[in-house]
Amino acid sequence: MTTRAAFVCAAAVGIVLACSDASGPAAPKHLVIAAGDSQSASIGASLSLPLKVSLTGTDNQPFPGAVVTWTVTQGVATAQPPASVTDSAGDATTTLALGLQTGPVQVTASVAGVVPVVFTATAVVVYNFPCPSITPIGFGVSGSLDATDCNINGYYLDVLGFTLPSQRSLSIRLTSSSTDTWVGLYTGDGAFLAMNDDSLLGVVRSSMLNVILPGGSYLLTPSAFGPGVTGDYALSLYDRPALLEGCVLDSTNLVFMNPALHYTNSDRSAVWLTRGVSFPETITTSDCADSTGPHYSDRALIWLDSGAVVTVREASTDFDAFVTLLGPNNFRATNDDSANSAATKNAYLVVQVPASAAYLLQFGTRDTAATGAYTVAIGGVPGTLTAAGAGLGPPRFHR
User: Fold this and answer.
1) Does position 124 have pLDDT exceeding 90, yes or no?
2) What does the radius of gyration of the chain's CA atoms come to, in whole angstroms?
3) Which of 89, 124, 159 represents a domain boundary (last residue)?
4) Which residues constitute the domain of residue 55?
5) pLDDT value at residue 225
6) pTM of the predicted model, to two decimals?
7) Domain check: are 172 and 252 in the same one?
8) Which of 74, 78, 88, 291 ranks highest by number of CB atoms within 10 Å?
9) Residue 363, C-beta contacts closer than 8 angstroms, at least 6 positions apart
């Protein structure tokens, strides 16, 4: 006797009921906003709460494993990540970083085959921004420094804003025929991230800032090295590989809070990193080498405010990873084999820094003369902004 699945089909004049298999798998059915709607924050800042949705299936149970796409449909903002997957409770989240434009923002969360939902937010200026005039920048701009510009502690500067939808590695070049240039980089709400004075210390007075940034909004401040200086300038942004190749930073001569960056034979500068970036890299024999072994490493700078917690992961299947963070007053933190040396040779460093400063990150190897591929991921949470590191009042690193 043949057993058949139970189907119920009915038809009448003008009415057709489709056949359905009651024993079939569940499918996504209903998406709702769970948290994070109707928030406000300052331009350039992230909303305090993540955007969260909940998805149920045709069986009325939480639906895991579905891809939720987050799309900014009004205003200027960046969702990170732009897509996320529902967990066992049917929930998915993203973080929204507001752009440099005030006003309403809408973000649509969507799942294939399901009615989408729309989050709203408002971008406002909620603090005493020291330079209220922000000029959007593309990949090139010419301007001038004069006494009518924003004045911070006697330095004239313009404030240029840009938004990145996702991680990007950039070179930022500031040149002038009449002045010794200085360029600063800040988050959209004015927290200090990086700077450059001379692209070739003491020789080439144009500025060249290399940085790897996560998606979000940022401010650039072209300025002069000295206070009260005016003159024309040209600023350009261009893409560069997300690499730490070569050995630009000489850690033996790096003076923290006065980082005289040392260069060799070219117009180049060190790479600055920030929390929220991840990228692949390779250690080669042309990278930095210490006097023992040798041990090869890549090096980069990162600005951290007092009390900040930074997490640094260096993972490799080619070598035993060893990560180091160096800071002022002989500060040093290292990690070799994460929390479980029997299971992994990846390095994972978690540290709270004691002072606001430029710190040196060193991605190295535990074994002598080892080389190979690895990946970097940097996270953590900000600390307490100091007077030097907040509100476009940058530390001025002098020669």
Assistant:
1) no
2) 26
3) 124
4) 28-124
5) 84
6) 0.74
7) yes
8) 78
9) 244, 281, 283, 297, 298, 299, 300, 314, 321, 323, 374, 376
